[in-house]
Amino acid sequence: MDISVVVPLYNEAESLPELTEWIRQVMNKNAFSYEIILVDDGSDDDSWPVIETLKTEHAEIVGIKFRRNYGKSAALNVGFEAAQGNVVITMDADLQDSPDEIPELYRRIREENFDLVSGWKQKRYDPLTKTIPTKFFNAVTRSMSGIKNLHDFNCGLKAYRRDVVKSIEVYGEMHRYIPVIAKWAGFKKIGEQVVEHRARKYGTTKFGFSRFINGFLDLLSIFFVGKFAKRPMHFFGSLGVISFITGTLIALWIIGQKLYHIAYHIRYTREVTDQPLFYIALVAIVVGFQLFLTGFIAELVSRNAPERNNYQIEKTL
Length: 317
Ligand code: UDP
Ligand code: MG
Fold this sequence. Notes:
elongated, Spore Coat Polysaccharide Biosynthesis Protein SpsA, Chain A, 7 strands, alpha/beta, binds magnesium ion, binds uridine-5'-diphosphate, 2 domains
C-alpha cells in the first residue's frame, strides 16, 4: 500500500464526508493505493455514525473509536500503530489542511528520501491571539531541538516514512513535537513544505489557552527525557558534585582562616557566622548533596524501566 492517511478527530461530524471525498479524488487521480484511518477520539456528536455510513460506500476507510476523549496525541499514536502504507500522512479533520498537498509530500518522502516532511502554514487563517504565541513557540523549539529548518512544528499536516511512525511513541500532548521525537529517535532527514491553510469551515477549535502552558511544559520534558532519561546521574550528579565540592572548599577556607588566626593569636575581627560566604558554603553543600541523591534515585528508577535497553536498530547484516 502506498499511503495511509491518519486523521485524528474529535466532534468533526460535518467535515468528514467532504474530507474523505476530497482525499478519495486526490488518490484516484494519482492512482495511489491507500487507506484513510479515521480515529474518533471519543466524540460526543455524530462523528462515529457518520464514519460508519462513509465506510459502507468507501472501502478504503478504516474507523477506530475511542471510548472516551484521550487527546490528539493518543489518537495519532493508535493511528500510527494501525497504518500499513509506505508513507503515512497525518492531517486534521477540520478541512484546514488540504488533501491536494498529499502527492507532493509523498514524492518528497519516496524520491528525495526524507524521513519526515512537515507542513508549514506560511499564510495562516487563525486569530492573532494564536499566531503570535505560536511564532514564539516555534522559535524556542527550534533552538532547543536543533532542528533549524522547521517553522511550524505543530502543523497537523505531515508526512512520514513508515519506519518513523513505527518507531516513535506520541503521548500526552507531544503531538506538537513529533519532529523533535523523531530526531531523538535518529531520523535526521527532516524537511518542510509550504502548505495551503484554510479557515475552519465547521465546528470550533478543540484547544484553548491551555495549549501554551502545556506546550511549554511538554517541551521541557521532551528535552530532558530525550537528553537525560537514560543517564540521569550524568546530569544531576555532575551538578551535585560541582556544588558540593565548591561548598566544601569554601568551608575549609573559612575554617582554615579561623585556625590560622587562633594559632598566631591574631585578633579575629569577624566571626565565622557573620560572613555571607559561610552561608553560601552551607547552601552549596546541602544542595549539592540533594542533587546527587536525586540523580542516584533517578538512576535506580531508570534502571528498572522496562524500555531501558530499547535501542533503535536501523539495519543488521
Ligand atoms: N482533536 C482530537 N482530539 C482532541 C482535540 C482535537 O482528535 O482532543 C483533533 C481535531 O478533531 C482536529 C485536530 O485534532 O482534527 C486539530 O484540532 P483543532 O483543529 O481543534 O486544532 P487547531 O487547528 O485549532 O490547532
Ligand atoms: Mg484546526
